Predict the structure.
Amino acid sequence: MTPLTGLPDGDDLPEVVTIGVSVSVPDPYGAEIQDARAGHGDPLARSIPTHVTLLPPTEVPAAALPKIEEHLAAVAAAHRPFRMLLRGAGTFRPVSPVVFVRVEEGAQECRLLEADVRSGPLARELAFPYHPHVTVAHGLPDDALDQAYAQARGFRAAFAVPGFGLSRFDADEVWRPWRSYPFS
């Protein structure tokens, strides 16, 4: 587990913290997707680092964080680095107004990680079945979603995934990396 600097710890935390767990998409790919998201008019583009979700936003008591961090360290220790290939576009429409880049390689590893992360102190039900992806547009008008889909069809990025991270949703409504968990 690698702590990140500049973030509140211990007594500086509110009683309840909103966390998420994800695989980061490294730059230049992460920045390219974030720029595309902003270009489509997504107001959340600059407040959410580019990622593949392993645990969606989840409220937890701050007092539970030590057990959660132990759990995440154990999950990381049980997994190995893998290759991820992002390629092409997908959408959850009409169920949800989301356009995404598909996880072509690494999807099975993400499914296994997600199941392990979302167990123990982080066990919870999901609103939708887990589907690894990288969001490009969310909650926008249909024409903007169509444009995002057309643009994402040509996207391709391959990179190594050395671990995952724990992020926190702060009072300013920005997601910030908090801890990183390298694989064994």
Remarks:
- The chain has a mean pLDDT of 92.
